[in-house]
Amino acid sequence: MRQVSLAVILLLGLSVYAFDDEVFAPLSSPTQLTFNTRSDRQPVISSDGSRIAFSSDLNGDFDIFMMNSDGTNLLPLTPSNSNDTSPSISANGGKVAFQSASGNDADIFTINSDGTGLLRLTGSRPLWGNFDDTDPAISGDGLWVAFVSNDDPLGLNPEGDDEIFLIRTDRTGLSQLTVNSRDDATPSISADGGKAAFQTNLGTWEIFTVNSDRTGLTQISNNEGATTQSFTVSISADGSSVAYDSAALAPASSREMMRVGPEQLSSQVYVASSSGVGQPRQVSATGGDNFTPSISRDGSRVTYVSTEGGDTEVYVVDSNGTGQPVAVTLNTTFDEHPSIDFDGGTVAFASNLDGDYEIFAAFSAVIHDVAVTQVAVPRRVGYNAISSNPLQVNVTVTNQGNVDETVTVEVSFLAGPVLSTQTSPLPTASSRVLTFGVSPEFLALGTYTLVARAIPVVGESDTADNTFVDGTIEVRIPGDVDGDRDVDIIDAATMALAFGRTCGVVGYIAASDFDNDCDVDIIDAAILASRFGTVG
């Protein structure tokens, strides 16, 4: 992987964050992925985090490029004969939708990630005139594209305003999702193409959702008066959640990136249910302007741009609104257009750190780390040569990493063979007590030291705390209550005092319960009587 210089790393900064009871993987210092003197903009990362598509004027006009998310295998996808912008990428990175402007209008195209299969979805049939088809959003499965058009291919848009359309990537199934006399913009589409989110100009810009069959039209934002607007919207893979920015008029100042006139907009980022149930929750901090959100496809995180520090920085925040936003970038330049993968583990964005815009990414620093943190033996005395319940050994194993694991723990005696093994799921930041049974029946007399070991999980480097040596088990002659290696009248008298007692009852003596059944009874008396006088 090509790494950004140390100076760039220090300038961009390091982000580590955790929210409430769930520990999220920290993001590394951003890595610069493109290196040229041109302008690389509008990065979008695939849901699986494997690929990034972006628009660049490297070849003189803007074209769509594709690369792996580590910056390798850079590939130009589109020819240099038009301005190709606004890429949208499928979940596995296999297909990209984009808009291409050549001549008097813009049209929607798709292309495969290897540069094959270029297909024009709009403008190539008599139905389409010289109109603008823009802002494509491809579904995660790569089968559908939502877009904006002021054309009237189906006879449902005689006013010629901007409407939201849906089309299959094989050019079939064209439908018009919005039918109104207002302008609609910036669609975002669920993974299966079943639901779209978009903005509509009702005098103020508002956020709506609609099903792909035009049912279920729902207004999400409700801005009061002409001083509040809602712009960019992003929908989760299952279509259940949307993130959007909502802005109020503020004093004029100069700043890039927001689509505003002489006045800037002071905005916040919100997350809401796409069904309109419940109140939208603000997830951005109140300082500065916060805009252009991208919600992770699983709906757990939101990335956005903020001017809280005076310039534009990229932030990430828990979408449930309980955690504090954390800066992915910390610099004095403009960072823009963040895009986030399925679980929030990678954020791609553009930055003009070196004077022109380049593509950067901050990656999840996945940590695999399990540890044995305790070995507890409630009863440490057992007896050989008789059948008894096993002695209990409780091993506490902890996931000290930031990803869910499945851990295997084995128990043995020091320098001895493995006695027992258990495998258990171990979620992030959790501990689990695994109970093992050790039978003393076939063990020689003596004291044994216990060892519990968590077998290292794949990718684990810190294994020093995987092994825990603690706790002993003493194996005695059956009937030897006082542990002096003979069974005599003292043992008989001691057991007589405990006779009839059970666990938890005053007077119960565990060393007199030879068969470990939590009851000093006639069976234990018989065992002592049969071994009376034995010396070991």
Structure description:
With 536 residues, this protein is mainly β. It folds into three domains: 6-363, TolB, C-terminal domain (Neuraminidase), CATH 2.120.10.30; 367-475, Sandwich (Immunoglobulin-like); 477-536, Type 1 dockerin domain, CATH 1.10.1330.10. The chain has helices at 6-12, 489-498, 522-531; strands spanning 31-32, 40-45, 51-56, 63-68, 75-76, 83-89, 95-102, 105-112, 119-120, 133-138, 144-149, 163-168, 175-176, 184-189, 195-201, 205-211, 218-219, 228-235, 241-249, 265-273, 281-282, 290-295, 301-306, 313-318, 326-327, 335-340, 346-351, 358-363, 370-376, 381-383, 391-399, 405-413, 418-426, 431-438, 446-454, 467-476. The protein has a five-stranded mixed sheet, with no helix packed on it.
Low-confidence stretches: 1-24, 250-262
Please tally the helical runs, counting DSSP H or I stretches of 4 or more residues. Answer: 3
CATH homolog superfamily of the largest domain: TolB, C-terminal domain
Report the end-to-end length measured between terminal Cα atoms: 67 Å
CATH class descriptor of the largest domain: Mainly Beta
Strand tally is 36
Largest β-sheet summary: 5 strands, mixed
CATH topology of the largest domain: Neuraminidase
Structural category: mainly beta
Mean pLDDT rating: 88
Query: Could you say what the CATH architecture of the largest domain is?
Result: 6 Propeller
Q: What level of helicity do the residues show?
A: under 10%
Shape: elongated
Number of domains: 3
* Strand order, largest beta sheet: 30-36-35-32-33
Nearest-angstrom radius of gyration?
33 Å
Share in β-strands: 35-45%
